[in-house]
Amino acid sequence: MIRCKEVEFQRKIEREAYEISKSYMAPCQKLSDFFADTETKSFGSVNPTYKPGVVPSDIRKILPGRICDNLKSGILNIDKKLKGFATGDALLTAPETRSSSPVRILRDETLQAIGIEGLYPSGEGAGYAGGIMSAAADGIRCAVKIIEKLNG
Ligand SMILES: Cc1cc2nc3c(=O)[nH]c(=O)nc-3n(C[C@H](O)[C@H](O)[C@H](O)COP(=O)(O)OP(=O)(O)OC[C@H]3O[C@@H](n4cnc5c(N)ncnc54)[C@H](O)[C@@H]3O)c2cc1C
Predict the structure, then answer these.
(1) pLDDT tens, position by position, 132-143
(2) Does ligand 1 come within 6 angstroms of the Cβ of 39?
(3) Ligand 1 site, residue 97, Cβ cutoff 6 A
(4) β-strand 91-93 against 26-30: which pairing, if any?
(5) In Å, how far from its chain's centre is CA 58?
(6) Which residues, in sequence order, are bridge partners of residue 65?
(7) Distance from C-alpha of 81 to C-alpha of 75, rounded to nearest angstrom
(8) What do you get for the CA distance between the two ends of the chain, in Å?
(9) Which atom of ligand 1 is nearest to the CA of 100?
(10) What pTM was computed for the model?
């Protein structure tokens, strides 16, 4: 099991989110409640779309205060540019903890894993991409290296 503070932080948030409903239904909060620091009991004009479902909640229970504060100021900033972004019935569904890999499998200039010939760590899981296009581009980069190697 990977043990580093980033992964521990990710696991802590995922564990706390699960504990809210003891299921994989995601905690979800109305923006007006988030700004009022109160728990959401029912949703307004915006219906949640997250599958397998959500539970009305208070995302401050799972996200540290500094992240909630940054979210609040960020949402208000976007609302200055995108009027209505911070509408009270808008929903915050959290957490999305699986974005780019916090670790990277080191590779050499031939894009093979250091010390493991023939293994080409590539894409998101190996720590070389953070999105569909960058993963595809990295896959192509590795394929080109494999072809070069096969053509000697
Ligand atoms: C909720 C969510 C939303 C996202 N939204 C966007 C977005 O809007 N735009 C964007 O650009 N990116 C988005 N991403 C990121 C994007 O999905 C990834 O960056 C991209 O899919 C990474 O591609 P990949 O080929 O490196 O890895 P993956 O797509 O993860 O593919 C890895 C594959 O390996 C398979 N696999 C795993 N273990 C094994 C094994 N032992 N044996 C055989 N096969 C195995 C898996 O089943 C999977 O099919 C999102 C990701 C998530 C989770």
Answers:
(1) 999 999 999 999
(2) no
(3) no
(4) antiparallel
(5) 18
(6) none
(7) 10
(8) 38
(9) 19
(10) 0.66
